[in-house]
Amino acid sequence: MKIKNKNLEISFIGDKKFKEFFQKSKKQLNVLMTYFQSLHHIEGFSEICVKIVSDQEIKLLNKNFRNKNKITDVISFGDIGFSGDIAITESYIKMNSKYSSQNFFMLLVHGMLHLFGYSHYDRNNRETMRMLENICMTNLGLKKTHEI
What span, in angstroms and rounded, lies between the C-alpha atoms of 49 and 11? Predict the structure, then answer.
């Protein structure tokens, strides 16, 4: 499952239910692509792979790459430019066994902002990242992630 524009391609790996969710979310995914395209005036071509993973898989990734032996919601692995991989934990985006647009896009936006060089490890960067998350969520027609 892929969504692509002139400078950015996002591939998604998930189960059959996620594939159905993906089909229903194409309009929002196109808005997301436009947001990141305009936010960073991407030059060249960037590829992002998003995989929906289990609690066990994200825990292993978190342990191996961040030295944290616990489950987390999303992890980003940057590559050249804005390319990279994002792992999103399925249990964090499902509500009553269905994928939640609010939770999915909140974590996808968060992971993509990390690939685009943003962090939340100090106050100024955290405020900037939260502001950008809120703008994107509003553009997607979803609730803001943070109160600033």
Answer: 5
15 is a domain residue? yes
The SS3 of residue 100 is coil
| Euclidean distance between CA atoms 131 and 136, whole angstroms | 9
* Residue 28 falls inside a structural domain: yes
CATH of the domain at 50: 3.40.390.30
Sequence-distant (≥ 6) Cβ neighbours of residue 76 within 8 angstroms: 84, 85, 86, 111, 112, 114, 115
Q: Which amino acid is at 1?
A: M
Asked whether the whole model's pTM tops 0.85, one would answer yes
Question: Using 50, 70 and 90 to split pLDDT, how confident is the model at 40?
Answer: low
- How far apart (Å, rounded) are the C-alpha atoms in residues 115 and 117? 5
Q: What is the CA radius of gyration of the chain?
A: 15
Nearest to 105 by CA among 147, 137, 141: 137
Give how many domains the chain has, as a whole number.
1
